[in-house]
Every structure is written in structure tokens, then in C-alpha cells.
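Handout, page 2. Input:
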Amino acid sequence: MASIPSRDPAQRRLPLLIATLFLSYLCVAIPLPSVPIYVTGQLGLDNAWAGLGTGMTFLTAILSRGPAGGLSDRRGAKAAVARGLVLYGVGGLVSLGAGLLQDRPVPAFLTLLAGRVLLGLGESFAGVGVVAWGIGIAGPQRTGQVLSLVGAAIYGALAVGGPIGLALLDHAGFAGAMAVSAVLPCLGLLAIWPLAGIAPHPQAARPSFVGVMGRIWLHGLIVCLQGIGFAAIGAFFALYFLSRMWDHAGLGLTAFGGGFVLMRVVFGHLPDRIGGLLVAAGSLAVEAAGQFLVWSAHDPILALAGAFMTGLGCSMIFPSMGREVVHLVPPHLRGTALGGFTAFQDLAYGLTGPLVGFLADRAGYGSVFLVGGAAAGLGVALSLYLRRARVAETA
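Output:
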């Protein structure tokens, strides 16, 4: 089980922090399958614009991960989380405005992009802050377990948020779905308010952000390759089902999230026990198999099984590589390093939507998952290369 011992009373903060992250991250999960359907169905735009609408949150996060990590290091992780939750709420409100403009496609889409930008900023500050806060509570020796719990909260939210978002879209419209997503971060802000933070490092010497990235970029690239498969499911799985007139289009993220959380809960200790690179190589192989299964599926059950396998495979890659990254930098650079590391995942999420949306318009939705499988296969090769290099250095 991916659990943190609670002998230290300070560690009792961690379960509440993780629960708060789950609740707040629903504001990201609820719009994820709804945005492409709203953009293509109600605004009448094509899949490339739908992919841009989905990916804008993650593209924005790429540019703001560095400042988010710096804020966490200088002023404390709690300050970063609080700022992120406020941005989440404001982004939800702006996206609500897009739902009220559905009869005017261009203003509606531009407003939606503004809301997605704010959501991306919130994702940077809240995500980096929660990770740094959790590691500060549990200690760097349990980095893999903390990242496993954080990921279980995020992808657990994605698992239930997707169907909730589609149900809200059907019964309350896009504006109603965005109204619900705007309220949830406010509840999260109330939950963290009484929690004690961790000590910042305002005076410590800091190398440039580029210098920090130079230490970790290969590990980040592995996470980037992993993220393509998830982004494909998040942006296009529902449209893939609808194009084939299959039922249960909203269950793709549920299947993915179920596999993801199951793996984190049962095997969350593995990176700390046997090393991150070995776990990443095996996980990426499973993800590749899942993506190829979705691509080749001839019925919805097989496609959902492929989404579940993708979740199993994606699950342990971020904590595996995050564990390696945390041990490559001193404590006062931890937030900055995690911010830069996470930006690679954002890069995958942000670019996959518009790029494979362009591909889907010309080669069909199945081609999206073929690309995801190939990227995961490349990640396997890179993980094994880094592991061999590590063994050669210690020999």
C-alpha cells in the first residue's frame, strides 16, 4: 500500500492535504471530456480547435512551473497551493462565461481559452505546492510514496470527474458544469487554511532555472513520452467512441483512472524499494500495450480495457522519475526542480491535443492512440538507457 507512516504527528497533515487535492482537482477533471464536445458540438469548430481548448491548460502550465517552484521554495509550499486554488476558482468562473456565449462561437472560444489559461496557472502553483508540501511532511526518503499518493488523488479525480462532467453537460449545460468546477477549489482553500505549512528557504543560493533543468531533463523527457498516452485518452477517447456510435463514451477516463489508482495504491512503494528507472521501463511497456489495444479495438469493451491498461502503465512513471529528480538536487531547490520536471508532463498534455487533433481530422481518431503507443515504446528505450548509464557509473 502506498501509505505514509504517521508516527510523527506532523504527518497527519498529509491525508487531509491529499483529500484536498482530490476535491480541488475535480475542477480540472470535470471540463476535460466536456471541452472537446462543447467546442466541436455546440461551437461547431473542428478537432484541432477542440484539442487546443483542452491542451491550453497544460501549455500554460509549462510556462508557469518554474515560477511556481520558485514561490514554493522562497515563500513556502502552502503559499503556492493557496495561490493555485484561487486561480482554479477564477478559471472556472471565466469558463462559465464561455458557456453563456455558446451562440457566438468566436467570443465563446476565446473566453474559454482565457479560462483554460487561468486553470493552467492554478495547476502549476497547486500541483508543485502540494508535492513540495507532502515531501516536506513525509521526508525525501519517502518521495516515491508521496508522489504516488498525489497522483492517486489527481487521477482518482479524473476517474470520477469525467463522468460527472459529461452528466453535468447533459443536464446543466457547459455553463452549469463550469459553475460546479469553480466552487470546488473554494472548498479546498477552506480545508488547507488551518494547516501548518513547511519552512521556506528564502536566502539559499540558487542556480539558474536552466541550470537546474540541465540536471533533470532526460528524466523529464520520459515523463513527457508517458503523458502523450494519457492526453490522447483525455482529449479524444469520448470523441473516438461517439464516432463509432459506441455507448459509455464517458467511461474512458474512469477506466484509465481506475487502473492508475489501483497501481498507485498497491505498488506505490516500488520506486523507493527497487529504483525509479526499472519501474518506469516496465510501466511504459504496459502503457504502450494499452494504447495499441485502444487503437486496434473493434468493440468498446476492448477499448475500455486498453484505457485501463494505459492507466496501469502511466501510474508509476511520474513518482518513479520524481524520486530520481528529488535525489539529484539539494532541498532548497526541490520545488524548482519539481516544477521544471512537471513541465515536461505539461508539454505532453499541451501539445498532444492540437497536434493529434490535426492528425485525427485526417487519419481518424484511432491514429491518436497509435502515436501514444509509439511514444511509450520510445520511453521504454530511454529508461533502459539511463539505467544502464547509472549501473556503469557505479561499477
